[in-house]
């Protein structure tokens, strides 16, 4: 008997008898299917059952609601054939896969293999998040890709601004790599390659090959044999070395500096860059053939400004894991961290937390007094006009003279606050809710009342 596999489903079909047969067939293989109602909060993978008469805009609304709550894989199973454009529309609105139950052989196997893989993926991502902290949709999506990449045999290129976690991700890709008898991950920072001697760093050298070559030495390519070679800042790899490196990658052969003997090394390449390598190719500073070879699968890590929801969990992680501070952190400190910019991304946040933690003395929560003066916000620049008591009073007086009672006035101010917060966070309800210190659900209800925000399948 297969291990139980809990899965939700939403029916968008009226073919109840056929749907019941499908559910029985899946439950026989260990799937535990639970009907999901609107606003049910449970994560994990699930299935949408459709047919040719399903109202796709309703399906799109359900998917939009799901993706605002959680990052999960959704399989669309059609009972009957869907027109081609509908399947693309479903993929574009967020389903991970779509197929027609009666058009394939072994549909039960197709569903169970995908759902089991996605359940494993969720578990792996949750474990990764203890080190690669963050659960924003952008970050969760990146982590899902990281796991898929690690399980593939592709050469991986990680892109992203400085400090977004590229090296950390590279180490995790090596850790998750399931190659049997996998050996070490060898790191080479291409910015440190010394012109002239850089061939030695990668390929090793023979004794006497150059002035300081007092003994024979292996390079990174040899050390990474049967393991992973991580080339950080790949865009800095000197052009003359690129051809040699391409050969090592393609053929698995290389020569030590000062030697005429071809040697062999097989390794997985993971590289990282914060440069636009395609632009470098166009400028002629990076070989096009090498670019296509190293970018078998590209993963872009989002900058911190695109995943502000992760600032607080990251700060908590750094306070507790790196500084052993278990005391609570005052809300105002998190508000300060949230409002700031981080051009240096997670590294900059990490360094700021270190400065705050090192100023924190003794017992009690971490408070804004622990923030070093040099890090204080530029109050002049904040420029948020705070209504004076008089202005607020004038606004409330107007409402009073319009005949509004206390509840109506409160409701009006609340609605304005929600609208302003949502606008300031560019429609991101999670961030707006953090600002207002209310639940996201309250803002979703506010959104639902606005007719123009209806989502539709494109
Ligand atoms: N999601 C994360 N969770 C915990 N720590 C993180 C995370 N992302 C980055 N860090 C930490 O931030 C610092 C910078 O990360 P890392 O060196 O991996 O970034 P990078 O993108 O390789 O930077 P660069 O391009 O400058 O080399 C490291 O100390 C790393 O441990």
Characterize this entry briefly.
The protein is of the alpha/beta class and 458 residues long. The protein has helices spanning 16-28, 56-69, 84-92, 107-128, 137-151, 166-176, 198-203, 220-223, 239-251, 277-283, 288-294, 311-322, 331-339, 345-359, 379-382, 389-401, 406-424, 429-436, 440-448; strands spanning 5-11, 31-35, 46-50, 74-78, 97-100, 156-159, 185-189, 228-232, 253-254, 263-264, 268-273, 297-300. It has 4 domains: 5-126, Rossmann fold, CATH 3.40.50.2300; 137-302, P-loop containing nucleotide triphosphate hydrolases (Rossmann fold), CATH 3.40.50; 305-382, Helicase, Ruva Protein, domain 3 (Orthogonal Bundle), CATH 1.10.8; 389-453.
The CATH first-level class of the largest domain comes to: Alpha Beta
The DSSP helix count reads 19
Mean pLDDT across the residues is 88
| C-alpha end-to-end distance | 42 Å
Q: What is the CA-based Rg, rounded? A: 28 Å
Helical coverage, percent range = 40-55%
Structural classification: alpha/beta
Unreliable sequence segments: 451-458
Q: What general form does the structure show?
A: globular
């Amino acid at each position: 008997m297969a291990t139980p596999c809990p899965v939700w489903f939403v029916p968008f079909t009226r073919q109840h008898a056929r749907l019941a047969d499908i559910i029985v067939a899946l439950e026989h293989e260990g799937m535990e299917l639970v009907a999901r109602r609107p606003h049910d909060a449970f994560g994990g993978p699930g299935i949408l059952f459709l047919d040719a008469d399903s109202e796709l805009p309703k399906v799109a609304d359900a998917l939009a609601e799901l993706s605002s709550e959680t990052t999960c894989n959704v399989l669309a199973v059609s009972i009957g054939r869907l027109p081609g454009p509908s399947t693309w529309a479903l993929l574009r609105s967020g389903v991970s896969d779509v197929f027609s139950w009666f058009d394939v052989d072994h549909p039960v196997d197709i569903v169970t293999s995908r759902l089991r893989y996605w359940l494993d993926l969720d578990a792996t991502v949750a474990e990764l998040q203890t080190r690669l902290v963050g659960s924003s949709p952008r970050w969760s999506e990146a982590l899902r890709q990281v796991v898929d990449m690690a399980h593939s045999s592709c050469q991986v290129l990680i892109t992203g601004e400085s400090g977004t976690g590229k090296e950390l991700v590279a180490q995790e890709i090596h850790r998750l790599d399931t190659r049997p008898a996998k050996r070490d991950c060898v790191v080479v920072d291409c910015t440190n390659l010394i012109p002239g001697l850089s061939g030695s760093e990668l390929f090793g050298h023979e004794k006497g090959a150059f002035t300081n070559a007092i003994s024979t030495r292996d390079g990174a390519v040899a050390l990474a044999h049967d393991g992973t070679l991580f080339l950080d800042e790949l865009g800095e790899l000197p052009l003359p070395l690129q051809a040699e490196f391409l050969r090592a990658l393609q053929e698995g052969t290389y020569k030590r500096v000062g030697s005429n003997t071809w040697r062999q090394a097989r390794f997985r390449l993971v590289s990282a860059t914060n440069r636009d390598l395609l632009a470098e190719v166009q400028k002629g500073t990076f070989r096009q053939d090498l670019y296509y070879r190293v970018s078998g699968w590209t993963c872009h890590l989002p900058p911190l400004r695109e995943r502000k929801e992760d600032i607080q969990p990251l700060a908590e992680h750094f306070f507790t894991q790196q500084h052993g501070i278990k005391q609570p952190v005052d809300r105002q400190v998190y508000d300060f961290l949230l409002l700031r910019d981080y051009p240096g991304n997670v590294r900059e946040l990490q360094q700021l937390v270190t400065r705050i933690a090192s100023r924190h003395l003794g017992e009690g929560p971490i408070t804004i007094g622990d923030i070093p003066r040099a890090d204080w916000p530029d109050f002049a620049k904040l420029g948020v006009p705070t209504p004076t008591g008089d202005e607020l009073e004038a606004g409330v007086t107007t409402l009073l003279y319009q005949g509004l009672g206390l509840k109506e006035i409160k409701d009006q101010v609340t609605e304005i606050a929600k609208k302003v917060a949502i606008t300031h966070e560019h429609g991101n309800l999670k961030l707006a809710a953090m600002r207002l210190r209310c639940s996201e659900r309250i803002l979703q209800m506010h959104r639902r009342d606005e007719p123009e925000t209806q989502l539709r399948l494109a």
